């Protein structure tokens, strides 16, 4: 339903860790350092999916841009 309304999608720390192929502790460190935005919900964090996608594409640098353009 949230996707139908155009609301942002949020990921758990475990989902972010899996996508980025890092440990959950690394994700927590990134959140606490301000490198990755997150919303605290109770005792856990939720990370906007768009922020994770941006961070991954930023990390790819020129290679990711060439890949995205179909070269």
From TrEMBL:
Record bears the keyword DNA-binding: yes
Give the transmembrane ranges.
Answer: none
Q: Which UniProt keywords apply?
A: DNA-binding
Q: Domain Helix-turn-helix spans what residues?
A: 10-58
Pfam families, A to Z:
HTH_17 (PF12728)
* Keyword Magnesium carried by entry: no
Q: A Gene Ontology molecular-function term?
A: DNA binding
- Could you tell me which InterPro entries the record lists for this protein? DNA-bd_dom_put_sf, HTH_17, SinI_DNA-bd
- What is the name listed in the Swiss-Prot or TrEMBL entry for this protein? Excisionase family DNA-binding protein
What is the originating organism of this protein? Georgenia thermotolerans
The record lists the lineage as: Bacteria, Bacillati, Actinomycetota, Actinomycetes, Micrococcales
């Amino acid at each position: 339903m949230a996707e139908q309304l155009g609301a942002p999608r949020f990921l758990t720390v475990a989902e972010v860790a899996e996508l980025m192929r890092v440990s959950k502790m690394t994700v927590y460190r990134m959140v606490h350092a301000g490198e990755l935005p997150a919303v605290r919900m109770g005792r856990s964090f939720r990370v906007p999916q768009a922020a994770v996608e941006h961070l991954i594409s930023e990390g790819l640098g020129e290679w990711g841009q060439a890949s995205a353009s179909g070269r």
